[in-house]
Request: fold
Amino acid sequence: MKIVNAPEENVFWCSDGKVFRNLQELASALETMDDETFSHHANNERNDFSNWIADVFSEKKLAFQIKNMKSPALVAKRLKERLRN
Reply:
């Protein structure tokens, strides 16, 4: 999969201050993201990562696959698998 950057107005602003422009940057950050930061964005009420992937990159299937994952490492693994294909 080719790395595509989000338009500047649609970059992902993480609660820890990091900014992600593409799925590669998100996957890398998720590998070391602490549980508090992850759960701020992915919990029972919302899933900012899934929404961003669906809305900005039109990757609806990938967004659905990660929507209920409760571990940043699992989400990172799935994103990296998708990026390799």
Remarks:
- The chain has one domain: 18-84.
- Helices lie at 23-32, 35-41, 48-57, 60-66, 72-84.
